Amino acid sequence: ARPEAADGRPGRGHEDFRPRIVPYYRDPNKPYKKVLRTRYIQTELGFHERLFVAVLTSKATLNTLAVAVNKTVAHHFPRLLYFTGLRSAKVPHGMVLVAHGDERPIWLMYETMQYIHQHFGSDYDWFYVMQDDTYAQAEQVKALVTHLSINQDVYLGRAEEFIGGDEQARYCHGGFGYLISRSLLLKLHPHLDSCRNEILSVRPDEWLGRCIIDFLGITCVSQLQGQHYHTYELAKNTEPEKEEEEEFQAALAVHPVSDMTLMYRLHKHFSRIQLDRAYQEIQDLQMQIRNLTSLTPAGEAGLTWPVGINAPFLPKSRFEVISWDYFTEQHLFSCPDGSPKCELSGASKADVSEIIESALEQLNSRYQPLLRFSKRQLLNGYRRFDPTRGMEYTLDLLLEAVTQKGHSHVLAKRVSLVRPLSKVEIIPMPYVTEATRVQLVLPLTVQDLDFVANFLDMFAMNTLDTHDNALLTLLFIYHPYDAQRVSQVDVFAGVKAMVGELEKRYAEVKIPWISVKTEVPSQVKLMDIVSKKHPVDTLFFLASVWTEINMDFLNRCRMNTISNWQVFFPVHFQEFNPALVYRGEQTASSSTDFLRDGHFDRYSFAEACFYNSDYMTARTKLAADILDHDEVLESMEVFDVFLHYSGLHLFRAVEPGLVQKYALRSCNPRLSEELYHRCVLSNLEGLASRSHLAMALFEQEQANST
């Protein structure tokens, strides 16, 4: 209890718990200095990652035990490095190895502690050190550090006595792993050189324990803050599957592991234990949900199946109904390419086989030993993806049921299954910044001349006036007939005059243009010309004349496009024909009602963000594939080049910041059938919504009838 003043108010002992407002003050006599923000907000706020794991290995065991550690527990830890004295000629795939150049055990421990402090001391709260002949339960270790306070100096592991030393002092046995807090590592670092010169020991774990005790006065403990560090020492010829001791089942670390096979057997055994615990916990939670459901306003009717999984999505209109896909064991009747029937193969076939097998397993586990089921045939299969819960299945199975006495009977059963959505994972992505310069590329044909003025006005207002780091290149596409008459009548003379006015208004801005003569303006051929005239590190934004450029979208273009990793194809928002939507009424205000006034045009691939280096790489592979058949390029877009000839991620997403006014596009019949058909569909779906079209037809019929 804190002391209180005579009037009952908190005394001086409470001052640390009372909030204080620190006023902002800047000396007016000092020049203003721009504050440099950190790359990540967690750095600015002082957040640290939780756990770093160091595995001590050697040249002799790097390709055996260290590989076994990497395959069993490495993917459970957020960051894991392997430390060795000498390295072999070839490092196993997927392992980050640090070689110190000396196999002496004490030197290896000293250099490892120095390396951890130098590279990770300011980034992590906990450091777990283990050997490659140790099996550690990764999830248990991660759970352990979440229950420990980071404000204490922690040296936690299997406490062992020094040989001939102080009875009170203990060191942590290296074979069973040990945990060191960040505060302890920071205090230990200044004394590591003294420990290396003054402390003599054969074992590296004893050397480290003696160093911590002599200079910091901290001894190893096996229990701290109510948390126990359980370990188990394996005997020779141990059979993990037959070990039933409670000490073994609860162990966080097991040592010594003599070979790779034993490591894998231990991992399988402890994974089974964790899985059984998870299933038991799920059953307990489901029972609690059933017991509590009767107390809710909805009563037992509000209990959903499966218990604990989100309820199915309830559509509010017929347009929101999620359709079921029909399948058999050989065919799928809802194909990606739109065909009515296709062969079941690949991931879909594996999915169906696994679901049928799971259904039989559940039936047998429920009715055995009275009945044993085997599959005769899948009569009907239905599946659909519910975004609120996962993949749902309904199977009509023809089964053969066999009783304990051997009598068999054929019957049909309908079963329902759900594959719920699992834990969401954040995919690590390379770091990008919003400072990258964007090079806009605008192809123009004669049909686009009426819209160029609006595009240039929006470009000037949203990029030039705001000094955004963006440049513009115009691509004039001349028909052969217009190209022959360009000296007498230049169809793009008006556009060139507008560009000249912009360059006069903004003296530091230059807007170059490129003239091309072609009857078939292939997007790939045009991009080939532009690509050769820009550096390889250029970030292109391939725009259309109806695009209204704004700063928000350009920033998303920069953030969603990653060199040698990802390209971005935004789905722009296309406004409907105002003549059909408003029918003479006043148009909507600037705050556009997206659900009424337009739609996202999924048929258009005109806009794209990508790096020149990525395009050149994919284009080189395409050239090797088609050889001299350049006519193939007329049936392709830039999207197809990246889709079929690059290993990059293609990010296709709706972009509400990319809004286009309604305009009837001119579809070139000389392009490929697919591109022409896609252009026509884009025009048709861009007319109006179903309700607006229905109202227009109704009004027309009313007018005709009168």
TrEMBL record:
Top-level taxonomic group: Eukaryota
Subcellular localization: Golgi apparatus, Golgi stack membrane
Protein name: Hexosyltransferase
Listed EC numbers: 2.4.1.-
EC category: transferase
Keywords assigned: Glycoprotein, Golgi apparatus, Membrane, Signal-anchor, Transferase, Transmembrane, Transmembrane helix
Family, per entry: Belongs to the chondroitin N-acetylgalactosaminyltransferase family.
Membrane topology: Single-pass type II membrane protein
PANTHER family recorded: CHONDROITIN SULFATE GLUCURONYLTRANSFERASE (PTHR12369:SF14), CHONDROITIN SYNTHASE (PTHR12369)
InterPro entries: Chond_GalNAc (IPR008428), CS_glycosyltransferase (IPR051227)
GO cellular component labels: Golgi cisterna membrane
Pfam families assigned: CHGN
One term of GO molecular function: N-acetylgalactosaminyl-proteoglycan 3-beta-glucuronosyltransferase activity
